[in-house]
Amino acid sequence: MNKVEIKARLEEAYSDFLKFIDGLSADEFDYAPEGKWNAGQQAIHLIKSTKPLVKALGLPKFLLKQQFGKTNRDGRNYEQVVERYKEKLATTTMEAPAKFKPEATSHKDFKKLCEAQRAVIDKIQTKLNKWTEEEMDEYVLPHPLMGKVTVREMMYFSIYHAGHHQNLVKLYLKGV
User: Which residues does UniProt assign to the signal peptide (predicted)?
Assistant: First the structure.
């Protein structure tokens, strides 16, 4: 997937998520099984997990290299990133780090959450304009579950992540 395709898929994935939760009733939006996140909290988690990418993608590349190094392996494609994430998720008891955990929210916050997520995705897309295809495969960023991943792989993960959380909401609502 090239940069143009990544940008389109990011837009599509987060738009689909927001359209899905927009279609929920207030009760559905606010519902979550015990110990799980409701639709609004899923949205907050997605905002909190994409927001750091805006900063990272805007940093001078020499700082990224200094902080995290450069890749020392071949890049993974979208399917490989998704598979790796699923494997890590299945084999760990780790919860989302505190900085990515959502606070309580309700249906009344929907519009604010939509605006925040759209703004973050727009900023990521703008920052990606300054990255070459080669740089996306060269520089790495830390992922809390998968370790160091290339910038391209982080974008793949971010695309998948929106659908993953949409599917969690669907799964939880089956219990209603």
Answer: none
- Around Cβ 163, how many Cβ atoms within 10 Å? 16
Beta bridge pairs of residue 139: 70
How far is residue 118 CA from its own chain's centroid? 12
Domain segments of the chain: what residues? 3-173
CB-based contacts of 125, cutoff 8 Å, min separation 6: 7, 10, 11
Residue-wise pLDDT for 45-62, tens only, equals 999 999 999 999 999 999
**Numbers of helices and strands, H then E, in the chain:** 8, 2
Calpha distance 163→55 (Å, rounded): 23
What is the second-level CATH architecture of the domain 3-173?
Up-down Bundle (1.20)
| Burial profile 87-119: b = 16 or more Cβ within 10 angstroms, e = fewer | eeeeeeeeeeeeebebeebebeebeebbebbee
